[in-house]
Amino acid sequence: MGISTRSTRSCNASHYTCFGILLRQTIYQHIDSHAIADEGLKELGPMSGREKSLIAIFILALVGWALPSILTQGFGIKFSLDATAVAIVAMVAALVTGVIKWEDMLESKGAWNTLIWFGGIIGMSSALSKVKFFEWLADFMGDTLQLRRQPDVGSYYHRRYQYRCSLLVRFW
Questions:
Q1: Taking residues 136-148, what's their average pLDDT?
Q2: Up-side HSE of residue 114: CA atoms within 13 Å toward CB?
């Protein structure tokens, strides 16, 4: 026979794999998700007053954030409500109602670090924008780097020049 042992084995292995995939039976297991959910809710027990307060605060915060755009777009009423003020009021309400304890606030140092740094960056950005630093920086960088006078990247001569430079760098 003209077929070597090696090619016969690989042919048989691939032949078996093809039929194995085609004839493989899938076993479906019925999982009663409702029973699992009911069991989990029984373990949790009824909602506490803190949980109900948290839901109310969350819904009021959502309404506070969405209300200005709903009134403006839906009814044409100009209404302004700062999103930061809504967030601060929601946080104070969570502290006053006991949903979040002061000790919990003090323990989350990473969140406070992020808040302080983010506030500092936003404050610095606002101050630099007022003195038109970013406009000056853009003009300075544009003039210094001559970004406004770049040759057409798609031109034939520019591509030819880039190709010759790349050859020099590669083979020199």
A1: 74
A2: 4
This prediction has a pTM of: 0.49
Residue 9 has pLDDT above 50, yes or no: no
In terms of residues, how long is the chain?
Answer: 172
Contact between 103 and 63 (Cβ < 8 Å): no
Give CA 151 to chain center in angstroms.
Answer: 37
107: Cα separation from own chain's centroid: 25
Q: Quick check: 18 pLDDT over 80?
A: no
Q: How many of the other CB atoms lie within 10 Å of CB of 57?
A: 20
| DSSP codes of every residue in 54-79 | HHHHHHHHHHHHHHHHHIIIII----
The CA distance from 166 to 160, in Å, is 10
Q: Which residues of 150-160 are buried (b: 16+ CB within 10 A; e: fewer)?
A: eeeeeeeeeee
The CA distance from 144 to 137, in Å, is 10
Query: Reduced to 3 DSSP states, what percent helix, strand and coil does the chain have, rounded to the nearest 5?
Result: 75, 0, 25
| C-beta atoms surrounding 111 within 10 Å | 10
